Amino acid sequence: MTAMERGTDWLVRGGLRPTRQRVALAALLVGDGENRHVTAESLFAACVSGDEKVSLATVYNTLRAFCDAGLMQEVVVDGSKSYFDTRMDDHPHFYWEDEARLTDAPAEELVIAHLPKAPDGTEIARVDVVIRLRRR
């Protein structure tokens, strides 16, 4: 299966129409079958280095559409820096401060013993765990 075919299948699974730009971005994200952590800027740079012409605004909008379709999840670091993760199961992340890079952390080593009770009328939707690392 080619990267474009894998990207198209991924879009269809999310209920999204496979436009030329969406397929090109999806192929970069999931075309090799591996999970990715990207920023809009890093995905845009990958497009620029390839043959696909898209604007940074289109990349942002498309990543949001992929998240809304349940194909990706957004991981916010520092309240302003967003990474987009193609791995959809609940899992923790390492944020490498010196490199501004996000990677998966081993979920089997994380134990959350207790969460606070959600306020009345609400429920906990998910818990994001980002473990910040820096070199000594």
Automatic annotation (TrEMBL):
It comes from the Bacteria. Coiled coil: none annotated. Gene3D superfamilies: Winged helix-like DNA-binding domain superfamily/Winged helix DNA-binding domain. Keywords: Cytoplasm, DNA-binding, Metal-binding, Repressor, Transcription, Transcription regulation, Zinc. It is found in: Cytoplasm. InterPro entries: FUR, WH-like_DNA-bd_sf, WH_DNA-bd_sf. Belongs to the Fur family. GO terms for cellular component: cytoplasm. This is Ferric uptake regulation protein. The lineage of its organism: Bacteria, Pseudomonadati, Pseudomonadota, Alphaproteobacteria, Rhodobacterales.
